[in-house]
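Input sequence (484 aa), recorded before submission:
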Amino acid sequence: MKHPLRTTTALAALTVAGLTPLALAAGPAVAAPSGLQGDFNGDGHRDVAIAAPAATVSGKKWAGQVAVVYGSASGLDPAKRKVISQNTAGVPGSAEAYDGFGDQIATADLNRDGYSDLVVGASQEKTGSAEDAGTVVVVWGSSSGLSGGTTVKNPQTLSGSYFGLSIAAADFTGDGKPDLAISAQSDSENPSSYRVRLIRGPFTKSGSTGSVSSYSPGIDRPLLTAGRVSGDTKADLVVTGQKPDSGQLATAVYYKGTASGLTKAGSLRPAATAAIGDLDKDGYGDIALGDPGVPDSAPAGGRVHVVYGTGSGPSADRRVTITQNTSGVPDSSETGDDFGEALAIGDFDKNGYGDLAIGAPGETFGDDTHYLSSAGAITLLRGSASGVTGTGAVQLTQDSTGVPGTSEAGDSFGATLLASDVTGDGRADLTAIAAQENDPAGAAWFLPGAASTLYSTTAAKSFSPTALGLSTAQAGAFGSDLTG
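Predicted structure, token format:
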């Protein structure tokens, strides 16, 4: 379908040239794509892509797949899905053992046709003779869903560069063309040589892109999170990971989006994970930073820092730290809880304030006679005019009302989280992963948002890899990343 603006422009050009436009026969009405973030088929409902990098493809272990579940007014339906691998027609490359296709995924409308596109990383892909060089592929959205694919050129193809180690898709320059931020190593002999490549849009199916810039965050294995913090038209980037040569101590830095690219604008509190959203409805994005407790970097059980946004970026003094010992937060901090291992921000109750979902996949329940180690839990904290609050907080487990399943030792419920409005009712819905459910297959939960309880106690559903056409041999990697 032609975009109305393009048709108008074409007719105007004919008139200027002194030609009479031809009469056009009326054809059947075709709905325009929604333009919604995460809507791969343009039907007005956001879809959810679930990474399965440990999936076996054509007998190749850890070749990797991505399962896409299309959204609807009733939520996610595993029967309406598409499974994508490097053996899928039109997708570049071929499935090979230990590529890990799908170990990182992201979404944006990279070619600006109104359909969101899926960006898939395979950081262990071999390129030519370069082992573990890594690759990133765009699978294109369309009215029939995702199909075809184009490789994003690796600016520096080296053995051990792991291009695609982390991916964030957003318009960092504010020119209306989504860009890709992709992390990789620039020197396989130096483990601390990680870089962030900014590949500017627009992207085309033929493989062309805008210019490329490179940044050094000074962080090992950098994880990238995009969002608008300062409230302008440019997305900003939060980089989390490990301090070099620190014994896995967490760290984080903030890059401000500008018309010329990314500008490093300061350090944040220690973090391994991040999420960005407006928790106090002031028009600025707030940064949640998860420090789940890798050796000596956080109190027992983990913590989450919240840094509130301002017109110039992260606030220097409006910052709070939340643990399970914070007033109103359910449960209590215990060693190994991994509170903050996963984060998501969305308005689950539709009151205009973003709410914060915190995964604690190491949460343990029970007593000496019924001890469930690492069963996992999710804490939902409400947003308010004063920011995130423990008032009305909710803890979710597989034993909570309306949540399918039963808590079992080792499930790791809450290992990965995504907040997105799949049903189209204006409330964010939560997709959650239990990485070791039915050890080691993993499973996904769809938890629709609700006004009073933050999640629906009647409409939640769960599904396993087999429901998506995947094998159970997932080694705990099912759902290691989510996007939509």
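Checked by second reader. DSSP finds one helix and 30 strands in the chain.
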